[in-house]
Specification:
The complex is a heterodimer of chains A (769) and B (336). With 769 residues, chain A is mainly α. Chain A has 31 helices and eight strands. Chain A is flat, with a radius of gyration of 44 Å. About 2% of the residues of chain A have low confidence. Chain B is mainly alpha-helical. Chain B is built from ten helices and four strands; from the N terminus they run E-E-H-H-H-H-H-E-E-H-H-H-H-H. The relative contact order of chain B is 0.10. Classes of the chains: A mainly alpha (769), B mainly alpha (336).
């Protein structure tokens, strides 16, 4: 009991000064759609207060019950959130939350639809009537049959319900009789609710999810596509916003770390690694940088390799030197005793020689120190005449003109001086700039045509389910033909024959396919804007690179040609354009294959060809895989050519032409057929499957395209496509049957059961209520 | 559960297999909170929920009450769990082999998820109630048997009682304080309250320990309830997440109930391994980039809700809990 209400009763005194109870404030809750949001908001407020009270320890039973709901929701949210992060694609992630939502909704909706509504229609009683007690707690009116606050119903309302329940009007204590009957119906319905909810909720939830899957996917993909389009539209501006100075920061860090050191090979490589473009070989950046950076004149630095060369050069000189001694005997000089590498290395270490920078004078000073070491070693030699000693000393006495000193000064020091620093930072900034723009292109390209959760993947699955509808596959067709590709070939041939001889069906199917094609093209690459932007970006960037001294890099982007329109094979621009185009072609040419096949079936009866060839051509249209084409249909070269001619060389049927022209697809479709005749059909040697075109290899000249390219022209094998679609659809149908039928039976039984409720079945000797 | 208490009738229809005397149920009786009692109560409730209560309810019996309605809530839990498992698995056998395997692995994980949901939800409650009991001396779960006298349905009805199993603190508004007073000879009536008062540090030999302690117990029970309900759902979520780990697939491939050639023993061994490895991948998020930390977060949330819940339940009140200001002791009152 809240303190407030007690306070009320204390102030609520009657004339005699006695405290009397407050009048009850309970009321029935009228639930309608308009009031639902208010009730919902009130409920949230109530739960929040309940939580506060519970933590404090002052909550009542009703509040604790509400917190249980809250816990259930939190747990459900936990599950959905966890599974969300475990799912690979956005759709299945979203479906986790829809699963939770549909489950909770089913829990609420089932009693409303299967219990409350029928009870209301059949008996006129609202068995899920709610009321609010004097303390503002909302409860089900009939939840406790031993405590029902009947006084909340007026006589008028009770009588109205009694009339509906056909309680005789002239009995004594009619109100009690009606109440007893209402209670009975309510108890029966509450029991029915508990008995059925367990089965109904998961089934309903699963069915809701099943129905929502496609709309959700459509919505998400639509949103993804719109976002891709919008981002691509002003990708350059976005690039400026998204630009990260990743490379600039990295080279700045590198320069800071090595500021006083010469740029040795390791640092140079590291710098090139930082600067080079993703997906490009590092050597182009190396070549460009070598040219772009300036070496410091008059300053030199020695790398370990140079130092080794220097020592080796001396060593070689002594080793090759042969001296004819006074006694006339030729004696080899023991070079190892004169040139001791360990001693030279020690001096180099003491002098901090390797890796540092010296002027010519300093370098000569160091050179002297090494020479002194050699002189000392010569002095230490025994059994050598003074003449020989002199001769030996002269070997290292070349001064600044000696080849050894030249070795030491061969490397003009490359330094991070202000000039080089500015150059490197400018290049880094240029690359950062390009990468941010290229990221926009990549985002569009992979979002539209990449693998996995992409726009094109959605278009494929849409196409797969659409073709079953276009060719009027019934559930039975799907089940029967979905067992094997051979069964599908039979069914598909039957369908195509049927569509070919029915003008209306034919036109309808070709139109739908044409519309599908238009949609694919429009969705993926409207007006070829992708190629346009790629061309502009890469050309501009190549120009910028050239101006910035990165000539090799520029060539890798667009090729050596100066013509901006020319797409050079092997250039980065070429990769970006072709990669994108080919993915789309896969889908487009599969759709074209369907209308090509349909068109052939339509023209077949009028063709002046052998029936065998026509029958085989029909089968090939539906059932030939790329490998079948590669093997030249397993027939002679002549027969292969004939078949290709029959299939692709003749013009379309006039009906097909009309439809394709209407959709502005005729030119492209005809060009493809010509390509197929030319590139796929033009084989002169039947024993050469799978060869790849290479200009350098003479033997491949009869085929100007790779087998992958040929396969792409032909499109996917239709039996396989329809087989896969049928399987997927069949799985769904089967599942719907297994889950939906019990669900429907349950709903029917639940509603039917209510017709038997409320009847008085008291046995003889029974006691009246 | 309907039991005869007709004193004239010498035939005993009680379902009580342990030979408890009928007199135990002549009035409400506190029961020991131990495993055998809990198991017996659970079996009684589940069997009644599937047999007697639906039969009474569907007839619209005038004796149907709120307890029966609540106990009937077991039915949707069990039926719902089975149906959920069915929805995910029943159609799989109609799919082509490759799809069947994928669907079956996912279906089994979902089924395991349903089982673990229930298991973790049930078991985790002890993680709250046991420490609270140990730290405060208040066992929030202590059960009692309630005798319910019903209206006869028929003139020959001699069996007009039913037994309901409640918990003393199942209602915080109306706890059954009366059952906690000791009736044993030689024991102070307030023995229970004395013990709790001492444990709560409210002192020994209190004049009216029951009055001192009751508000505190009510607070503890309320706070324990919220901790129990929120944490148990979070632990249930952990259970589902655990069931979704890849290592289970190893177990699903060989799970069996056949004992031939030690197959069952082997499958149990693999179950243990899979459980261990799944717990590991749940924590490390090894096989998912996006989900690398979500397993940890979920575990942490569940553990935190338990620990914080217990701490909140056992903490001392901010102010004296005995409220003396509500009723004016000098005033005059009427009751209607």
């Amino acid at each position: 009991m809240s303190v407030n209400s007690i306070q009320n009763s204390i102030t609520n005194r009657n004339d005699a000064g006695y405290v009397r109870p407050s009048p009850p404030k309970g009321r029935l809750i009228k639930s309608d759609i308009l009031g639902a949001p208010v009730l919902f908001a009130e409920d949230i407020g109530y739960k929040a207060r309940a939580l506060k009270h519970a933590i404090k320890g002052t909550a009542n039973d009703h509040e604790l019950g509400k917190i249980n709901d809250l816990g259930m929701f939190a747990g459900g949210l936990g599950i959905a959130s966890y599974l969300f992060t475990r799912r690979p694609v956005l759709k299945s992630r979203t479906m986790e939350f829809i699963g939770l939502g549909s489950f909770l909704a089913s829990m609420l909706v089932w009693p409303q639809v299967a219990v409350r509504l029928p009870a209301r229609l059949i008996h006129g009683v609202d068995v899920q009537q709610k009321y609010e007690d004097s303390f503002g707690r909302k409860k089900l009116f009939f939840q406790d049959p031993q405590y029902i606050p009947w006084d909340l119903y007026s006589d008028e309302d009770i009588n109205k319900i009694g009339n509906r329940m056909r309680v005789p009007k002239d009995i004594p204590n009619r109100r009690e009789a009606i109440q007893a009957k209402m209670k009975k119906v309510a108890v029966q319905n509450n029991t029915l609710w508990m008995l059925t909810a367990g089965f109904a909720t998961p089934i309903m939830s699963a069915l809701i999810c099943n129905r929502l899957e496609k709309p959700v996917e459509n919505y998400l993909k639509n949103r993804q596509n719109k976002k891709l389009e919008a981002n691509f539209e002003d990708f350059e501006q976005l690039a400026a916003e998204r630009k990260k100075p990743a490379r600039l920061n990295a080279v700045k860090e590198l320069i800071k770390k090595n500021h006083d050191n010469p740029i040795n090979k390791r640092i140079f490589d590291e710098m090139c690694q930082i600067l080079t473009l993703d997906g490009m070989d590092i050597r182009y950046m190396k070549q460009d940088l070598n040219k772009a950076l300036s070496f410091t004149e008059g300053k030199y630095h020695v790398t370990p390799e140079i130092f080794d060369n220097f020592a080796d050069s001396w060593h070689k000189r002594f080793a090759e030197f042969q001296l004819c001694d006074e006694d006339g005997i030729v004696r080899p000089i023991e070079a190892d005793k004169i040139i001791k590498k360990s001693e030279l290395a020690k001096i180099a270490e003491d002098e901090k020689f390797i890796g540092n920078i010296f002027t010519e004078a300093e370098m000569f000073e160091k050179h002297d120190k090494f020479r002194n070491n050699v002189f000392e070693n010569i002095k230490k030699l025994t059994d050598v005449s003074d003449y020989t000693r002199e001769m030996l000393e002269s070997l290292v006495d070349g001064g600044k003109n000696s080849s050894e000193f030249k070795i030491l000064t061969q490397n003009n020091a490359l330094m991070f001086d202000s000039d080089n620093k500015a150059k490197i930072e400018k290049i880094a900034d240029m690359i950062d700039d390009f990468e941010s723009k290229r990221a926009g292109i990549i985002e569009f390209k992979t979002g539209k045509t990449g693998r996995g959760d992409t726009v094109i993947a959605k278009l494929w699955t849409d196409m797969q389910s659409d073709v079953l509808r276009i060719f009027e596959f019934s559930a039975e067709d799907i089940e029967k033909a979905g067992v094997h590709e051979t069964a599908m070939l039979e069914k598909l041939t039957q369908k195509f024959e049927m569509f070919a001889c029915n003008k209306e069906k034919y036109n309808n199917a070709v139109s739908k396919l044409a519309q599908m094609f238009v949609k694919v093209r429009k969705t993926l690459n409207d007006d070829g804007k992708y190629e346009e932007k790629v061309k502009n970006l890469f050309n501009e960037q190549a120009k910028t690179f050239k101006e910035g001294g990165l000539v090799k890099m520029a060539e890798r982007l667009t090729g050596p040609s100066e013509d901006p329109e020319k797409l050079v094979k092997g250039s980065m621009r070429h990769h970006y354009e072709v990669n994108f185009k080919e993915r789309i072609e896969d889908l487009e040419n599969t759709i074209r294959r369907m209308w090509n096949a349909l068109d052939f079936f339509k023209r077949a009866p009028g063709l002046n060809e052998s029936p065998e060839n026509i029958a085989y051509a029909k089968e090939l249209f539906l059932n030939a895989a790329n490998s079948t084409y590669e093997c030249k249909f397993n027939c002679s070269s002549e027969a292969y050519k004939t078949l290709i001619r029959i299939m692709y060389a003749a013009p379309y049927h006039t009906d097909t032409i009309a439809i394709l022209e209407k959709n502005n697809l005729l030119k492209g479709a005809q060009a493809l057929r010509e390509d197929i005749v030319k590139l796929v059909g033009n084989h002169t040697n039947e024993l050469k499957p799978h060869h790849i075109y290479d200009q350098a290899l003479e033997y491949a000249v009869d085929s100007k395209v790779s087998s992958q390219r040929r396969g792409r022209l032909i499109g996917n094998k239709l039996t396989k496509l329809f087989f896969k679609s049928s399987q997927a659809q069949n799985n769904t149908n089967k599942w719907l049957k297994v889950v939906g039928i019990p669900g429907a039976i349950l709903l029917g039984a639940t509603i039917l059961a209510q017709f038997s409720f409320g009847k008085d079945k008291t046995k003889k000797g029974g006691l009246n209520d | 559960m309907v039991l005869p208490v007709n004193n004239i009738n010498s035939v005993n229809f009680t379902a009580d297999k342990r030979g408890e005397k009928k007199s135990v149920y002549a009035h409400d009786r506190l029961l020991k909170n131990n495993f055998p009692t809990r198991a017996r109560i659970a079996i009684d409730k589940v069997s009644s929920a599937f047999t007697i209560y639906p039969a009474k309810g569907l007839k619209g019996s005038k004796n149907s009450n709120f307890y029966e309605f609540l106990t009937l809530g077991i039915v949707p839990y069990v039926a719902g769990s089975l149906t959920l498992m069915g929805v995910f698995n029943a159609a799989n056998k109609h799919f082509p082999p490759a799809d069947r395997r994928t669907a079956s692995m996912l279906g089994k994980k979902l089924a395991a998820g349903v089982l673990f949901y229930g298991l973790f939800k049930g078991l985790s409650k002890t993680l709250v109630t046991a420490p609270v009991h140990a730290l405060t001396g208040v066992d929030t779960e202590v059960p009692y048997a309630k005798v319910n006298y019903e209206l006869p349905d028929h003139i020959n009805d001699t069996d007009i009682t039913s037994i309901e199993y409640h918990k003393v603190f199942e209602s915080v508004d109306f706890p059954r304080w009366d059952l906690l007073y000791s009736g044993k000879p030689g024991q102070a009536p307030n023995a229970y309250y004395d013990k709790v008062a001492k444990k709560l540090g409210m002192g020994d030999n209190l004049k009216d320990s029951d009055q001192e302690v009751k508000p505190r117990i009510r607070e503890i029970v309320t706070r324990t309830n919220i901790a129990k309900s929120i944490s148990s759902y979070l632990w249930a979520a952990v259970g589902v997440a655990l069931a979704f780990q890849t290592p289970w697939e190893k177990y699903f491939n060989i799970m069996t109930l056949k004992f031939k050639n030690g197959a069952f023993k082997n499958s149990m061994r693999v179950f243990g391994q899979s459980f261990k490895n799944s717990a590991k991948t749940l924590y490390t998020g090894a096989d998912s980039e996006l989900g690398k930390h979500t397993g940890k977060v979920l575990l942490f949330l569940a553990a935190a809700s338990t620990v914080l819940g217990v701490l909140n339940a056992v903490r001392n009140p901010d102010k004296p809990s005995k409220d003396t200001t509500v009723i004016d002791k000098g005033g005059k009152y009427v009751t209607a």
